[in-house]
Write a structure and sequence with these properties.
alpha+beta, seven-stranded mixed beta sheet, 28 strands
C-alpha cells in the first residue's frame, strides 16, 4: 500500500512539473535565453572560422613551397642521370643523348623545364677542333659564340629536345656571361648542383618573354670529383644543365587553375621587380584588393635562396570564411523559434491527449464486448501493471493448462508453478521488464497421449509517463495448424532431397558426356594431325598439278572434318556455359578475304562464283570476338555452297553505327541455291534438324551448323536473320557489335608478319624437346621443326622428359603432349617447374589433341606457357614459337 501511495505521489509531481514546463510563459522565457546563446555562438564561430582559414591558408602556402622545392629536386635527379650516362658511356653522341632525354618524358612527367643539355668546357686552343667535331656529327653551321677571345670557353654541345627555342642556344658560351659563370663556378668548386640568378635565356624569341634561370651539375674528367678545389677546376670537363623559363616552370609545378592563392617568387630573397621570378596573373593585373592573409616563406635551393610571398584571394576568403558563422546564426535563430513553437504546441497536445484517453477507454469497452463473443475459439486476459489478472475469458484456463485462475492472481506466478522455465513465464517476464510486446508457444497435455499447442501474444499498454497500465493477452489453439506445417516441412525436405539426387545424376551424366567428348576429340584429332601434317609436307615437295590437286582436296576435306568436330565441341561448351571470350584486334579486309579464300576450292569444285563485296566505309581495324565470328561465317558459307548447285555465293560486308560508340559489323551471305520454305525457319535453326529430314534427302550433314551459328550469334550479342525463297535462294544476315579502332595494335602487325608465306625463321641455334608418344605424330612435328632448322630431341613419355631436363644442355623450349604412358604431360610439367635453376624457367608449350577449355586450364595451372591443339598448321606453330625463341636471321622458304 505504501509503495502504491508513493507511486501515486510521484505521478502527481510529474504531472505538475509538466504543467509548469508546457505553457506559453515558459515558451517565451526559453526563446529569450536561446537567442542570447545563439548570438554568443555566432561570435565564437566567426572567430574560429577566421583562425581555421588562416591555418588552412598557411598549410596551402607551405604545400606550394614544398612542391616547388621537390620539383627542383626532381630536376636535379634528371641532371644526375645525365652525368651518370656520360660516365657510363665511352662517347655520348647526340643520338644517345636524345634517346635519354626522350625516355625521361620531361614534358609529361616534369613539365616546366625547357630541356636537358651538356655544355663542354674548352681551352682557347681546343675551340677549333671542338667546332670541327660537332660539325661532322651533323650540325654544319655549329660555332662557339660569342666569338671574342677569352681565357676559358664553354659551349652548349647538346640540348634536347632540339626544338625551335633550344636550337637558338646551341654553341652559346654560358661561361662568358657573369650570372651564368657565377653559378657554374659554384657548381664546379663544390662538386654539386647550383642554380643561377635571373637571366634572359637565349631560347627567348620575343613571344611571351619570361625571366629565366639555369641549373648546373659539373662533370669531371676523373669521374668522381677530386678532393681539393684546384684539382676540381683542372679536372672539369663540362656541365649537364637545364634552362628554365620561370613562368612555364611555375605553371607546370602549381598548375594553371589556382584560385585560392596569389603568388610571387623572388630570387636571392630580394623583393624588388628586378628580382621577381614569377607572379600569378591576378598579381600582374592587380585584380584583387588588400588580402586577408599573407605568408612569406624562404625556399632553400642548391646554391640559391628564393622568397615566396603568398596572399589570399577573394575566392579563398569567400569560400572559407562566409558560410559557417552565418549558418550558425541562421540555424540558431531557426532552432530557437522552432523550440518556441514546440513548447507552445505541447500545451495544446496535452489537451488533445486527455481527449484521446477518454476515447481509449470507450474502445476498451468495445473490445471487452468483442472478446465475450469470441470466447469459444480464443482465450483472452488482461493484467494490471504488476501482472495480476483483472480479466479472464472462460476458456483461458483450459487453453493455458492452468487450473483455478482467479482475478487478482499473478499470472506469471501461476505459470511458474506449473512450468518454471516455460515459454509463458519467459514471455510475461520479458513484457514486464522491457515494456514490450511478446509472443510464445506452450504445449498443454489434454489427456494420457494427447497434447495441444497454443500460441499467445502479450500486448503492453503504457501510461503517459511510461509506466505499464496493463498487459492485454490473447491465446489461440494452433494444434492443427502446427500439424499441417510439420507435414508441409516433411514434404519440402523430401522434395529437396529428390532435387539434389536428380542434380547429382545430371552432373554425373554431364561429366560422362564431357569425358566422352574429350576422348572423342582426342582420338579424332590425333590421326587428323598426322593426315593434315603429312599432307602439308607432301604439298611442299610435289610440283605435279594432278597430285597437288588431290592433296589439296584431301586437306580441304580434313579441314571440314576438323571444323565439324570444332562445331560439336563449341555446341557442348555453350550448353555447359564453358565458352570463353577472347577479343582481339584484326584487319577487316584481310580477315574477310582469308575467310573467302578458305572456301574458294569448294566453290570452284562446284563451278560456283564466290564473291566478296566490302563497303568502302568499313573501318580498317576492329576489335572483338573474331574467332567465333569466323566460325559463324564459315557455317553460313559452308551452308550456302552446300545448297547451291549453280550460280553465285556472295559475302557482303558493311557496318552500322551504334548509340554506345561501337559499330555493328553486318555480314550478309547470299546464294542462288535451292532455298527453303520460311514456314520451316524454326526447324532450320534447330539442332540436328534440316528442312528435309527424309532418308532420301539430296544433301547430307548432321544439321548442327545453323543451330550452332544461331546460338553463337546470341552469345556474341548479335542477331542472325534468314530470308529465303524456295527454288530461288537464301540470304542470311549476321550482325555483331565490335569496337572500331583508330590506332593499330602492335601485336596485330607482329601476328600479320608471322603469317607471311614468303619465309620461315632460322632457329638453327635453338634446341627443342618434343615429348610425344605417337610415332607418326613425332614424324609430323619433327618435319615441321626441321623446316625451321631447329635442333630436335624426342622423348616418348613424361618421365623421359623429366630425366632429360636434368641433363645439360637444357633445351630452349619443350613441346609437351598431355596424354602419354608412364607419366602424363601435366605431371611432367609440374616436376620440371619444381626443379632448381634456369631449367625450371624453360618455356613449355602444350601440343595436344585434347582441345577442351578445361584441358587448356589444366595445362596452364600445371605451369605450361602456351597451348596448341592438334592438328597444328605451320603458321600457328611459327607464330607461337616467335613468342619464346629469339630470331637469328630469315631464310627463304623451300
Amino acid at each position: 500500500m505504501f509503495r502504491h501511495t508513493g507511486q501515486s505521489r510521484s505521478l502527481k509531481a510529474s504531472k505538475a512539473l509538466a504543467d509548469v514546463l508546457h505553457n506559453e510563459v515558459t515558451a517565451w522565457l526559453v526563446l529569450g535565453l536561446s537567442l542570447t546563446l545563439t548570438v554568443l555562438a555566432w561570435v565564437v564561430a566567426d572567430h574560429a572560422t577566421t583562425e581555421t582559414a588562416r591555418q588552412k591558408f598557411t598549410a596551402e602556402a607551405q604545400e606550394a613551397a614544398l612542391l616547388i622545392k621537390n620539383r627542383m629536386r626532381d630536376y636535379e635527379q634528371a641532371l644526375r642521370g645525365g652525368v651518370s650516362l656520360i660516365h657510363a658511356t665511352e662517347q655520348v653522341d647526340r643520338r644517345i643523348w636524345a634517346l635519354y632525354v626522350q625516355g625521361l618524358n620531361l614534358k609529361d612527367i616534369l613539365p616546366g623545364v625547357q630541356g636537358l643539355g651538356y655544355a663542354r668546357m674548352l681551352k682557347p686552343d681546343e675551340v677549333a677542333r671542338h667546332e670541327e667535331r660537332v660539325r661532322r656529327e651533323g650540325l654544319p653551321d655549329y660555332r662557339v659564340w660569342p666569338v671574342e677571345a677569352r681565357n676559358q670557353y664553354s659551349a652548349i654541345e647538346m640540348l634536347e629536345p632540339m626544338d625551335e627555342r633550344n636550337r637558338r642556344a646551341i654553341g652559346y658560351d654560358m661561361y662568358s656571361e657573369p650570372v651564368r659563370r657565377q653559378a657554374m663556378d659554384v657548381a664546379m668548386d663544390h662538386a654539386d648542383t647550383a642554380l643561377s640568378g635571373l637571366v634572359t635565356l637565349k631560347q627567348e624569341n620575343g613571344v611571351d618573354p619570361q625571366p629565366g634561370f639555369l641549373m648546373y651539375l659539373p662533370v669531371y674528367k676523373t669521374g668522381d670529383p677530386p678532393a681539393d678545389l684546384q684539382a676540381r677546376r683542372a679536372s672539369i670537363d663540362g656541365f649537364v644543365y637545364s634552362p628554365f623559363r620561370a613562368g612555364d616552370l611555375m605553371k607546370g609545378v602549381l598548375g594553371r587553375g589556382a584560385k585560392d592563392i596569389d603568388f610571387e617568387l623572388y630570387d636571392d630573397r630580394i623583393e624588388t621587380p628586378a628580382q621577381r621570378l614569377y607572379a600569378t596573373d591576378s598579381v600582374n593585373t592587380a585584380q584583387h584588393g588588400e588580402p586577408l592573409f599573407e605568408v612569406r616563406l624562404d625556399i632553400d635551393l642548391p646554391g640559391r635562396q628564393w622568397l615566396a610571398v603568398f596572399r589570399s584571394t577573394p575566392y579563398f576568403e569567400s569560400n572559407t570564411l562566409a558560410p559557417t558563422p552565418r549558418s550558425v546564426l541562421v540555424g540558431g535563430l531557426t532552432i530557437d523559434f522552432l523550440l518556441f513553437l514546440v513548447i507552445s504546441s505541447l500545451s495544446r497536445q496535452r489537451r488533445i491527449l486527455r481527449q484521446a484517453n477518454e476515447q481509449l477507454r470507450a474502445s476498451e469497452a468495445r473490445f471487452t464486448a468483442l472478446v465475450t463473443g469470441m470466447q469459444n475459439h480464443f482465450g483472452f486476459f488482461r493484467t494490471d501493471g504488476s501482472g495480476r489478472l483483472t480479466y479472464t475469458s472462460p476458456t483461458l484456463g483450459r487453453l493455458l493448462g492452468l487450473k483455478d485462475l482467479r482475478l487478482g492472481d499473478s499470472l506469471i506466478g501461476k505459470a511458474r508453478s506449473d512450468e518454471p522455465e516455460g515459454e509463458l513465464v519467459r514471455a510475461l517476464a520479458q513484457a514486464l521488464a522491457l515494456k514490450t510486446s511478446t509472443r510464445y508457444r506452450r504445449h498443454v497435455r489434454t489427456g494420457a497421449d494427447a497434447r495441444m499447442t497454443v500460441e499467445g501474444f502479450n500486448h503492453v499498454v503504457l501510461e503517459e509517463d511510461g509506466h505499464i497500465r496493463s498487459i492485454e493477452g490473447v491465446v489461440q489453439d494452433i494444434t492443427q495448424r502446427q500439424s499441417n506445417e510439420e507435414e508441409l516441412t516433411l514434404y519440402r525436405d523430401r522434395l529437396q532431397e529428390l532435387v539434389r539426387e536428380r542434380t547429382r545424376e545430371l552432373q554425373a551424366a554431364n561429366a560422362a558426356k564431357s569425358r566422352f567428348l574429350a576422348n572423342m576429340s582426342h582420338e579424332i584429332r590425333t590421326p587428323l594431325n598426322v593426315i593434315i601434317g603429312f599432307n602439308t609436307l607432301l604439298q611442299s615437295h610435289l610440283t605435279e598439278p594432278g597430285p597437288l590437286a588431290i592433296l589439296r582436296d584431301m586437306a580441304q576435306e580434313s579441314q571440314r572434318l576438323l571444323s565439324m568436330l570444332d562445331d560439336v565441341l563449341s555446341f557442348t561448351r555453350m550448353e555447359s556455359g564453358a565458352l570463353r571470350s577472347e577479343p582481339r584486334e584484326f584487319n577487316v579486309n584481310a580477315y574477310c578475304r582469308e575467310v573467302i579464300d578458305s572456301h574458294r576450292n569448294r566453290a570452284t569444285a562446284k563451278s560456283l562464283a564466290l564473291q566478296l563485296d566490302i563497303d568502302n566505309n568499313v573501318p580498317a581495324r576492329l576489335k572483338g570476338e573474331v574467332a567465333h565470328h569466323r566460325q559463324v561465317l564459315r557455317i553460313l558459307l559452308d551452308n550456302a555452297i552446300k545448297f547451291t548447285d549453280t550460280g553465285t555465293v556472295t559475302l557482303g560486308i558493311h557496318t552500322q553505327a551504334r548509340p554506345d560508340g561501337r559499330c555493328d559489323l553486318v555480314a550478309t551471305v547470299k546464294d542462288t541455291g535451292v532455298g527453303f520454305d520460311t514456314a520451316l525457319l524454326d526447324q532450320v535453326f534447330a539442332p540436328f534438324e534440316q528442312a528435309d529430314n527424309t532418308e532420301t534427302r539430296a544433301y547430307g550433314g548432321v544439321g548442327l551448323g545453323l543451330a550452332l551459328g544461331k546460338r553463337l550469334t546470341q552469345w556474341l550479342g548479335g542477331t542472325l536473320v534468314a530470308k529465303s525463297t524456295l527454288g530461288v535462294g537464301s540470304e542470311f544476315t549476321f550482325t555483331v557489335p565490335f569496337d572500331a579502332l583508330n590506332k593499330p595494335d602492335p601485336m596485330l602487325a607482329a601476328e600479320t608478319a608471322s603469317k607471311a608465306p614468303a619465309a620461315y625463321p632460322d632457329w638453327s641455334a635453338h634446341r627443342v624437346l618434343v615429348v610425344e608418344d605417337n610415332l607418326l605424330n613425332q614424324e609430323v612435328i619433327k618435319a615441321f621443326l626441321k623446316r625451321l632448322k631447329l635442333q630436335i630431341e624426342v622423348c616418348t613419355n613424361g618421365q623421359e622428359a623429366v630425366n632429360r631436363m636434368q641433363q645439360e644442355p637444357s633445351p630452349d623450349l619443350v613441346l609437351m603432349d598431355l596424354h602419354m604412358p608412364v607419366m602424363n604431360g601435366l605431371e611432367a610439367t609440374r616436376n620440371i617447374r619444381a626443379m632448381e635453376g634456369p631449367v625450371s624457367k624453360v618455356p613449355i608449350v602444350a601440343l595436344t589433341a585434347a582441345a577442351l577449355a578445361e584441358d587448356e586450364a589444366a595445362s596452364r595451372e600445371a605451369g605450361m606457357d602456351d597451348f596448341l591443339t592438334k592438328p597444328v598448321n605451320m603458321a600457328t606453330l611459327v607464330s607461337t614459337l616467335r613468342r619464346y625463341l629469339p630470331l637469328a636471321q630469315t631464310a627463304d622458304q623451300t
